[in-house]
Amino acid sequence: MPRVDVQDPLEAECLEALDAEAFHTRRDFLQRTAMMAGLAAGMGLVLDPDTVLGEAARRQRRTQLPSPRNLPIDTFVVLMMENRSFDHYLGWLPNADGRQAGLHFTDKSGKTHATHRLANNYQGCGFLDPDHSWDGGRTELDRGRMDGFLKADSDVFSIGYYAEPDLPFMPHVAREFTTFDRFFCSVLSSTYPNREYMHAAQSYGMKANTLPTSQGGFPDTTIFAALTKAGVSNRYFYTDLPVSALWGANGLKRSSQVQTYYEQAAAGTLPALSFVDPSFNGESQGTSGDEHPHGDVRVGQAFISDVVHAFVESPQYKRGALFIVYDEWGGFFDHVIPPRVPDLRASSNEADDFGQMGLRIPAVVVSPYARHGHVDHSVYGFESILKMVRYRYGLPPLTPRDLFANNIAAAFDWRSKPRLEPPSLPTPAHVMATACSGSAPADSGGVGAGVGTVLGSPPGSSPPGSHARDSQPRRPKPHDLQKLLTSGYLDRLGFRYRPATPSTMYRHPSKLGMRP
Amino acid sequence: MRRGVRAAALAGLAAAIPAAGAVADSFTPVRMTIAVASVARLHHPLAVTVRVSADPGVLDTRTAPLRIRVKLARECGGAFQYTSGVVLLDKRLNPQPTTGDPYSAIARGAGSPAAYGSRVVCTYLEEEGDGRVFANDEAVTTNVSKACTVAARRYDHLRRARDARRHRSRIRAARRAARRACGPGVPL
């Protein structure tokens, strides 16, 4: 064995290497690890191995969060739209894990269909509302094969997608701020359970869109209740139907119409946490504003635009974060398999597992601290947003779900100078969707178009490029949240329902249809 | 003397590591620290060491043994099973967490990268059977470097030659070149 000159590490290393049995010893490892930690190699032999190991690893890890009190976010806004998957909406996004054209799916009869661009088919009139139920989701997941989108209660609409030019607002906001390409809806099920997870990190054991009629509302274990208990302001803003009513009178007590959101944003008086919801009613006619089929997606896009513009123009933007999310994938195709995570009602039986996350949804954060044009690849769910809010205000976990979730605060850039000047974002024309009507297309393989009208355009004209073909949903189906109204549940809680109109939905009703 | 060196080393460590903020609090109930070289050689074992620690009682919710699983991949798939890549580590945690106690364990493994380019060290703490993910980390990357692979291969070739002792200067130069290309974390 050659003699080692300990004064010259390189020489020593070299001479040692001449030994034919040179191998990766614990000593070598500690020395190298210490160097990775920014220490002299010799330190690796002096310090406790665990310390060196830990510090080396920590140095490689993502930037640590500011302490809760130093987190420069005082205003959180969560805008939750409806029923779109990541691939379906943002599969085109550069640097994101998205797929659109070229995928093929087999239907129940064994016929193979290719994914197709929906382009100016903004409503999907004439097609089924894709299956996004508890069981339907599992059929689509197909034990991780992700090939069941045409085997559930869906047709080829479910494998359609929008390219970048097709949507008037989301692509712009995605390119300006941070998009998440591993953001899964919390549970592989429909609207109610997912919205319940957004509010409370659980669905109280509900697998489907079930009203808590017997209890007069779920127990108020929401993030709102936790914030109120800690003396932190919060508010829920609805457009027509208040999801907060699922928590009974307590939920309604913290609710206001969305016009109040616009006013408070302008005045700089938004609470620490705001949830904003679009208009849900009118789905069966195609006039809802939540982007749920068969509503016109441009209505929802214009609504998102108004909520985002109100936020970025608010004095609170400088210390704010607005999350745009969709409640679930809506039965639309996606190629990424959702993970199973710890949950209050986790089960090893897949059919009963509330820890089975749903498919990816489009999710973007708007904030001066969001990275510009960035795609974050970490795993998140609605509970990840709750975790950031909890972190900021020092709240205990609501359930195991948000206890174990990744904190979405890790996706922000806390070290660089914040971009306090909001970027230029488009203001899409406000659209009043019109009802799907007429007869269904004979060939379900075709792509029916909606017939929305751009406000301010000549009467009777159709949006540029639209087919203006008469069609109607083959399965007219009111939005499940309409049950809040039709069941008398809202009446019993004393809520006075008013249908959404442009003047109650948009920020500047007087400018309806006017492009800036 | 030994104590003095240790104190100096700790002071150096404190200076080298940026302020960590709130790291080990209840908002991060399960922590995984991953040590892996930032540069790796193609078809050559890449060692990974993962330390798992958890707040008391946090991991009691599991219903099956926990495994620590690491894959080297172009992109992580959200769970070990759904991530395509080379397995660096897939072991049952030893010891398994016990009720109510703070938890800490270290696991080591290695695997050989199969392609050049930047790769993510996708680390998962999962329950056996379900693959339920209790914690994941996708923030650590390593670069499977062609320059490092070629330089290290040349060095290996020279030092293994029958007359290696006669060419110490060439070996030394090759060693320096390999170290420059590979950085400090790659065993040569």
Give a verbal description of the structure.
The complex is a heterodimer of chains A (516) and B (188). With 516 residues, chain A is an alpha/beta fold. Among the domains of chain A are: 9-60, no CATH class; 73-84 and 167-426 and 484-505, Alkaline Phosphatase, subunit A. In chain A, 26% of the residues lie in helices and 9% in strands. Chain A contains 17 helices and 14 strands. An eight-stranded mixed β-sheet of chain A has the order 8-7-9-1-10-11-6-12, sandwiched between helices. In chain A, strand 7, helix 10 (248-253) and strand 8 form a beta-alpha-beta unit. In chain A, helix 2 (26-36) packs across helix 4 and helix 8 runs parallel beside helix 13. The longest helix of chain A is centred in the middle third of the chain and has 16 residues, at 297-312. Chain A is globular. Residues 1-30, 35-61 and 438-473 of chain A have low confidence and may be disordered. By secondary structure, chain B is α+β, with helices and mostly antiparallel strands. Chain B has two domains: 22-144, Sandwich (Immunoglobulin-like); 146-182. Chain B has helices at residues 2-16, 146-159, 168-182, and strands at residues 30-36, 39-40, 46-54, 66-73, 85-92, 103-111, 117-127, 133-137, 141-144. In chain B, the strands form two sheets. In chain B, strands 2, 4, 5, 7, 8 and 9 form a six-stranded mixed β-sheet that branches. Chain B has a three-stranded antiparallel β-sheet with strand order 1-3-6, with no helix packed on it. In chain B, strand 7 (117-127) and strand 8 form a beta hairpin. Chain B is elongated and about 60 Å long.
